[in-house]
Predict the structure of Protoheme IX farnesyltransferase.
Amino acid sequence: MSARALTLSTTASDLISLTKPRLSLLVLITAAGGMYLAPGPLGPVRALVTLLATAGTVGAANAFNCYLERHSDQFMARTRNRPLPAGRMDPATALWFGLSLSAVSLPALVLGANLLTGVLGLIALLSYVLAYTPLKARTSAAMLVGAIPGALPPLMGWTAVTDAVDAGGFALFAIMFLWQMPHFIAIALFRKEEYAAAGLKSVPLERGDESSRAQVVLYLVALVPMTLLPFQLHIAGTWYLAAAVVLGLGFLGLGAWGFFKHLGKPWARQTFLFSLVYLTGLFAALTLDRVPRG
């Protein structure tokens, strides 16, 4: 491979990494889930355009985030090798990449889905970049703000089909919103020193480990009954209900074990990993036991 080809390959790889592909994949899966669960038809072309535009919008938000956090990213092991903190990319390139993705993806959302979905995409982009990202260095409440764009993709998938924010779409939004709380508190617990070195606020740094473990339990207490809504709203059937109860009680039990036993980083890492298993299992059950619509 020539030096020029190698350089182009590295640049392309770095641009893709700005979009945080693993996070973007999770967003795409939840958006596709919302689209599949919503009542009504959506043609394959419109569905594909909507998903690609959603991916582009999320990728743009992540690129802007990498640009804004390029200095603090140097102090965290999981981020210091990103293109900007590692010095492999000019910050202006990342900024223009984010702007270009936004300029293409947001209009595509409107054209592929509808105006409502495009507006939700814009809200997700702006709240993530202009609210959540700068607030991370000021207050642990940034987690609540950041959970809004994180919870919007399944609602966007739903509105792409229904062109309305109704009870079903709200239920998916609420589940994703509440799920993020124990997920991100767990990360902040086992990466507490890295957050401190980067100058980022978190619940463990501001409130302490005991309060963090208590908040994990409280959010799980709110999450478990919320996951029953898809059954009550006739979005999914009894197999989903059983899966939601079993997964929810398992998640809540893990959280309570950590709280009552005053457990530390190993428990926090287990909670983080289980949160991923939990979300995967919940959406798999939703998809497999979807109630057919006439």
Notes: The longest helix spans residues 44-68. The radius of gyration is 20 Å.
